Amino acid sequence: MTGALLADDASGHALLGAEVRSWLDAHWDPALERSAWLGLVVEARWAVPRWPAEWFGRDMSDAQARVIAAEFTRAGAYGTGQDRTNLWANTALSFGTDAFKREFVPALLRQEISMCLLYSEPGAGSDLAGIRTNAVRDGDQWVINGQKVWTSGAATADFGMLVARTDWDVPKHRGISFFFCPMKQPGVEVRPLRQITDEAHFNEVFLTNAVIPGVNLLGEENDGWRVLQTALAYERSAMGENARGPRRAASNGPVAASHEVDLIELARSAGCLDDPVIRQDIARATALRSLNALNTARAKAELAQGTSSPIMSLGKLAMSRILHEGARVQTAILGAATLLDGPDHPQADDANFLTLNAYFTSIGGGTDQIQRNIIGERVLGLAKEPEIDREIPFREVRRA
Amino acid sequence: MTALTVDESTALRASVHALLADRAGEAQVRSAMESDTGYDAALWAELARLGIVGLIIAEEHGGSGAGPVELELVMEEAGAALLCGPLLASSVIAAAILAAVDDSAAAARYLPRIADGSSIATAALTGLTGTWTPEGIAVLGAPPTEPGGQWVLNGTASFVLHAQNADLLLVAAHGPDGISLFAVDVPQTSVVITPLPTFDRTLRLAQVEFAGAAASPIGEAGAGWSAVERALDVARVALAGEQAGGAKQSLDITVDYAKVRVQFGRPIGSFQAIKHMAADLLLESESAISAARNAARALAEGAPDAGAAISLAAFACADAFTTVAATSIQMHGGIAFTWEHPAHLYLRRARADAQLLGTPAFYRERYLQQLGA
Fold first, then answer.
1. Nearest residue of chain A to residue B251 (CA atoms)
2. Does one domain contain both B247 and B320?
3. Which of A173, A340, B134, B305 is most buried as measured by Cβ atoms within 10 A of its Cβ?
4. Is A154 helix (H, G, I), strand (E, B) or coil?
5. Is A235 an annotated catalytic residue?
6. B1 within a domain of the structure (yes/no)
7. Residue A386's closest chain B neighbor by CA?
8. If you average pLDDT over residues A164-189, what whole number do you get?
9. B221 in Cβ contact with B103 (< 8 Å)
10. Which of B223, B249, B276 is the last residue of a domain?
């Protein structure tokens, strides 16, 4: 039975909740290996309840999916709601051929396949449609040559979602195609990229006659820009609410705002909490965080009331400023101590690290300048800047 | 008063917006600011009839019985329109002081006339330094020298809002018991009210000299400043709302202009130099709205962090309005350097509002202390 047969109302939700509960009672075991558990969830059609029944789903509504998610949360289980959270599976489902979906989607939902993103290039950052990685059809496969950058997880990935140019004689947005590129092959070389923080979370990926089976083309040939827009939509917005704290506090993931550096305590321990200039700085920096939290809360409340809110798009820009300003004040508090670095000087190490890592938010995921264009054009309704390369064949576009 | 529903607050806001759109447009604001009194008496009467003049005054005293949340919404509209008049002086600060002092006789005597707009009251709280703290008070109160005699005030208060239009002054004065509050009816010969030339032409300020002025004590002797502080919290929320509304309107005017002003064959808003300024200002003005509404909510609920929320709103809204109004002139270019263009009226109001109840730096320091530092 697929749950869509249950009514989407209070009594239907109660029946659904009971069904999920009893299934979890019978199957949930925290000791199970991750992919084994996810296999059970996929098989029982709890992984992607909003998806169609023919593709592992139940044709359910948001409300029904939330009922299922609530039961999973209550039990401490995971694996449902992937119809919203699994970037890879959603992209595959939306644009893959049936043969491709049969091969990849179950494995993506079981999270057995490790993935990475092959979008940006050294010459195509903010202007992503200016990519120059080349894809040429050769029989029933594609041959790829080019270079990608800012790829996290490239060394361990099985596949990468790749955008590459398949037609150089049309304007730039119209000659791009989207692929699932196998990473473990001789034509793919991964080199860690040393960041300004002295960490290496990202890689450069060199593609030299790399080969992709024809079935791994997602969407139509030369329609990859549209596929990319859908895929990007799954990724955006998270950067405005959370940002990473000091490097010692978290290994890699973002930390919630509550884990932020306490500037008041830092100044107290540094003996400068009575300095009026420092006090003004701390008040300013602390206020930026509070204001962003208030904006986010107001945006959510307005959306819940059905009013559209311009504020949602402001979060990432606000977070850039919060991080840069917070690190600046940390540095002002510590003064000459920030000449030193490393684990023996943890306060200075935090300030130094956060000063540099602030650029992760103000450049990554679209620079502050691109973000301001988006706010100006989509929120305030200002006209776009003319793009001189938009309507000419890509081959004729000026390059550095 | 219980909190308004979404529909009710939308309706309140819409009615104020409609009235001000009709009666407080730019031409009417300019006419009011150039008049002797600085406001349109007929519009004031209409605001009284709508219940806006008595908005936060209790229903038992003829007011609307609304709270900080509704006040903040109304002030956003007043700020957007650059409304001229004694709303902050009489309807907010004076009314809030009379509500905060524990003196039912004074409340019953003064509040109904304030609510219906027939009396204009204002508070004389600061001396020549314009400091909104007990140290700023420069008026001395002397107790009666004989049974049945009167209290007498001597000294100077300055930066008094709309004193030249008022018939009732609420005065904070040092006395034998500490700081106490007094009601002084004006005009009287021993009170000299001298209008001050203001940078914000839509504002009216005066210096008030008390030379043996007869005064009636209100509230508990020596408890004057705590009542003033409670009233000032209401005033800070109101002013934050005015600033947030002013910032939003100033930005809207600027963005509208950037869409129609054409240079180099295209609207100036298509240039990233202008577009990026507008995006930054949207963050400022939306943050101001969030801060002002949060302060109003916290004060209405009596939240433990209300003090910090109010301080945050005080400096965030002041800085946002000043930044938006100042940048607006630069974004417009030459047209906004003319007297006829409204952009400078917003900058004048923004700069005045940023000093009126204390500076942004003062409120940043206060905020930090309220956070425990």
1. A380
2. yes
3. A173
4. coil
5. yes
6. no
7. B270
8. 97
9. no
10. B223
Residues of B whose CB is below 8 A from A276: 365
Residues of B in contact with A377 (CB under 8 A): 275
B260 and chain A: CB distance < 8 Å anywhere?
A: no
Same domain, B237 and B341: yes
The ipTM is 0.93
Q: Are residues A216 and A293 in the same domain?
A: no
Q: What is the DSSP letter of A311?
A: G
- Mean pLDDT for B266-295 is 98
Catalytic residue among A43, A112, A220, A235: A235
Query: Do A358 and A242 lie in a common domain?
Result: yes
The answer to whether the CB atoms of B282 and A291 lie below 8 A apart is: no
Question: Chain A partners of B278 at a C-beta cutoff of 8 Å?
Answer: 375-376, 380, 382
Distance between first and last Cα of chain A: 59
Residues B151 and B199 occupy one common structural domain: yes
Question: Based on the domain organization, do A262 and A218 belong to the same domain?
Answer: no
Q: B311: which residues sit within 8 A by CB, 6+ positions away?
A: B236, B363, B364, B366, B367, B370
- Worst-scoring range by mean pLDDT, A84-88, A110-114, B219-223, B363-367? A84-88
Number of domains comprising chain A: 3
Q: CA-nearest residue of chain A to B5?
A: A305
The verdict on a CB contact (< 8 Å) between B6 and A295 is: no
Residue B269 forms contact with A (CB below 8 Å): yes
Q: Is residue A398 part of a domain?
A: no
The number of domains in chain B is 3
Average pLDDT over every residue of A10-34: 95
Yes or no: say if B168 and B213 are a contact pair by the CB < 8 Å rule.
no
Nearest Cα to B117, choosing from B55, B73, B70, B170? Answer: B55
Give the pLDDT confidence of A297-330 residue by residue, as tens digits.
998 888 777 676 677 779 989 999 999 999 999 9
Q: How far is B322 from chain A (nearest CA, A)?
A: 16
Q: Could you say which of B170, B204, B223 is where a domain stops?
A: B223
Please judge whether B312 and A268 are an interchain contact, meaning their C-beta atoms are less than 8 angstroms apart. no
Structure tokens at A118: 């092959």
A354 and A293 in a single domain? The answer is: yes
Q: Does residue B241 sit within a domain?
A: yes
* Pick from A294, A317, A386: CB nearest B291: A294
Task: Give the Cα separation of B128 and B131 in Å (integer).
Answer: 8
Q: Is B5 on the interface with A (CB under 8 A)?
A: no
Q: A150 and A74: one domain? A: no
b/e B261-297 (16+ beta carbons within 10 angstroms → b): beeeeebbbbbeebbbbbbbbbbbbbbbbbbbbbbbb
Of B278, B286, B316, the CB nearest to A382: B278
B256–chain A nearest CA distance, Å: 9
> Is residue A360 domain-shared with residue A243, that is, in the same domain?
yes
Q: Mark whether A248 and A335 lie in a shared domain.
A: yes
Tell whether A144 and A41 lie within a shared domain: no
Residue B326 to residue B344: CA distance in whole angstroms: 8
> Is B248 at the interface with chain A, CB within 8 A?
no
Per the listing, tokens 């939290």 go with A293
Q: Which residues on chain B are in Cβ contact (under 8 Å) with A286?
A: 367-368, 371
B-chain residue closest to A295, CA distance: B290
Range of the domain at B81: 6-115
Q: What is the mean pLDDT of residues A86-108?
A: 94
Three-class DSSP labels, B8-50: HHHHHHHHHHHHHHHHCCHHHHHHHHCCCCCCCHHHHHHHHHC
